[in-house]
Amino acid sequence: MGSADSKLNFRKAVIQLTTKTQPVEATDDAFWDQFWADTATSVQDVFALVPAAEIRAVREESPSNLATLCYKAVEKLVQGAESGCHSEKEKQIVLNCSRLLTRVLPYIFEDPDWRGFFWSTVPGAGRGGQGEDDDENARPLAESLLLAIADLLFCPDFTVQSHRRSTVDSAEDVHSLDSCEYIWEAGVGFAHSPQPNYIHDVNRMELLKLLLTCFSEAMYLPPAPDSGSTNPWVQFFCSTENRHALPLFTSLLNTVCAYDPVGYGIPYNHLLFSDYREPLVEEAAQVLIVTLDHDSATSASPTVDGTTTGTAMDDADPPGPENLFVNYLSRIHREEDFQFILKGIARLLSNPLLQTYLPNSTKKIQFHQELLVLFWKLCDFNKKFLFFVLKSSDVLDILVPTLYFLNDARADQSRVGLMHIGVFILLLLSGERNFGVRLNKPYSVRVPMDIPVFTGTHADLLIVVFHKIITSGHQRLQPLFDCLLTIVVNVSPYLKSLSMVAANKLLHLLEAFSTTWFLFSAAQNHHLVFFLLEAFNNIIQYQFDGNSNLVYAIIRKRSVFHQLANLPTDPPAIHKALQRRRRTAEPLSRTGSQEGASMEGSRPAAPAEPGTLKTSLVATPGIDKLTEKSQVSEDGTLRSLEPTSQQSSADGSPTAEEPGQAWREQRRLSSASASGQWSPTSEWVLSWKSKLPLQTIMRLLQVLVPQVEKICIDKGLTDESEILRFLQHGTLVGLLPVPHPILIRKYQANSGTAMWFRTYMWGVIYLRNVDPPVWTRLAAGAQRRKDSVRVT
């Protein structure tokens, strides 16, 4: 039958289904087979020939027919999985049913009355071979569907290479087949790389798209902060009920990490040959991050048979969570596996940064957001992987592309989620000492970023990009300022030599955040000044030698520190400062900056444009919820500081807790100020002004400024380089206050970020699946829910 005839017959069947007012019996195979048996329709055909309005019409007017359609389609998939799909006709039926269910499922999920349908039991679908009449053991339709998909993903000659030596051999028995021998790609726990097969990749992709659609019920439910909001589809699929859990997890991970989109080094190769692997890799990455959607703060731990985890998994560790995908990921431990994963993710993240002399000669991938989520999951669930990443300079292969994406997305409000995930990753990494140490490596590879040219280290790159985000991003990024400066504080004790460009950027931020109108305009703005002062103190106390550029910048901008020390606290001065704010259009003014108007990147943040954010995100927790504070001991170990700690550091600057004592109250005040209810008082300014950690810097200025001025007068110096040379050989040993303890704010898992990641992840998947558009629009209730949650 020709393709046109197939489409016509399929369309006729759809029309019949929508016009029949009486239920069609499930036994009427002649009717139901029209949807899958005699047609050869592509997934795009199915989406075009089954309009959304008609699916909804059947759901409302002939619900039993929609139920039967779903039941029959699942039944065909189960039959295909049982038989092994040996004939071409069986394979075509499986693909047609898969496409039809991918089309229909979102319209089941959007209606609250239908959401339980797939979890209702079907007569005759027993668990473990029980009799058909045993209703207690009847298997819900969702479980039958998920198990069939899992079986079909390891179906010889359909989705994996057959191991038969000749056509004379009998077909492999799908029930006795060990799917660990059919893993799709070499990598973690599997050394053999099967021959690439276009047909297998396409079939896998179609089944993974259906699997992702099954998991997408979460998209239609309001975000729930409680741990009981586990996705039942993911929960079952990643349980011991799925005998293919380990090989499928490994197949997905290896397929993503082994992918090389460059085109084997031949320029323009991607234009000559279509890359059928990339769609599969994208789908694999999306399924992987959804199956790994797990709140690590609330893990249950059943025993997993050590024999099933293979040598790649660490059987000596505790069993881990019920979700086997999370369990397996958390137990990967071999260095060669870590290297494979890290190299793969770094290679793919760096792909958009590739520069060649031939424009557009290399293929650019588009799934970097999924890769960032995957990297986050790996670090969050497998601490051995995190330590491996930080063990060498390889972490910089993650840092540079992450900074590239942050800089690139800073002015695009539709990519505010990308900004958050990038900053969260850097916050997680910055909690480890090794990250700060690695940043001292010289930055020599020039990535195409619109930032000032500098000669320096990766630390300089980080600071320059952060400055750019803060001064020329958009207003929705302001909640990230705390995170950005926390990262700077965390790494500051280890930065051996900042460039003049980076030093000036930090001083410019302090200058901007120290203006009275900014300090008095919101209840928590002064925290940004505390963070910057803490970073300066760390560098002065622990890395004075080698940081003459920063010391010189501090001396040049000494008036900023004196202004902070003499900050007005009387009501008339506070009122005057706020009046000045109303007359000043720029949120980050450059007034008084010696770098003047030519200072690159110091533009005001643009106001939020309505309607540019394509998907909605729940609010991110404040920095106090995102991190826990630890003190570095003399032996280099971290000691967690209890929230009740009232220690004061030696130089009188606030301890880890003092700036954070009133965070809850500050957040409340902040929201009040946003609604116009809050106004600063003298008592409020005095409460934090007295804790400004200025002693170390004031002592530095007291010692060095007269020396520098004397040299300039005595030797008639006007050249910066001479002054810097003097500062390089200077010392403050014995002149500064006793060094304060190093405080690190480490990321801590919490339900707030778990929920944020869930909404972000589904937002990315929703926007990335447009051909065909699996989720064209959300149901009205879900849409209202999405519209009501915004990044704050």
Description:
Residues 642-652 have a biased composition (Polar residues). Residues 572-677 are annotated as: Disordered. It comes from Felis catus. With 792 residues, the protein is mainly alpha-helical. 51% of the residues lie in helices and 3% in strands. It contains 34 helices and 5 strands. It has helices at 3-19, 29-32, 43-49, 52-61, 63-83, 88-109, 141-152, 198-215, 232-237, 245-258, 269-272, 277-291, 324-331, 335-350, 368-381, 383-391, 396-409, 416-430, 433-438, 458-472, 481-491, 500-513, 516-521, 526-542, 548-556, 558-565, 571-583, 623-626, 663-674, 682-689, 695-715, 720-728, 751-768, 780-788; strands at residues 121-126, 138-140, 627-632, 638-640, 743-747. The protein has a 3-stranded antiparallel β-sheet with strand order 4-3-5. It has a two-stranded antiparallel sheet with strand order 1-2. Strand 3 and strand 4 (638-640) form a beta hairpin. Helix 15 crosses helix 16. The chain is elongated, with a radius of gyration of 30 Å. The two termini are 56 Å apart. Residues 129-133, 166-170, 299-310, 589-614, 642-675 and 779-792 have low confidence and may be disordered.
Secondary structure: elements and pairs:
Blueprint: H1 3-19, H2 29-32, H3 43-49, H4 52-61, H5 63-83, H6 88-109, E1 121-126, E2 138-140, H7 141-152, H8 198-215, H9 232-237, H10 245-258, H11 269-272, H12 277-291, H13 324-331, H14 335-350, H15 368-381, H16 383-391, H17 396-409, H18 416-430, H19 433-438, H20 458-472, H21 481-491, H22 500-513, H23 516-521, H24 526-542, H25 548-556, H26 558-565, H27 571-583, H28 623-626, E3 627-632, E4 638-640, H29 663-674, H30 682-689, H31 695-715, H32 720-728, E5 743-747, H33 751-768, H34 780-788
Antiparallel strand pairs: 1-2, 3-4, 3-5
Pfam family, one: Hid1
Organism: Felis catus (Cat)
InterPro entries: Hid-1/Ecm30
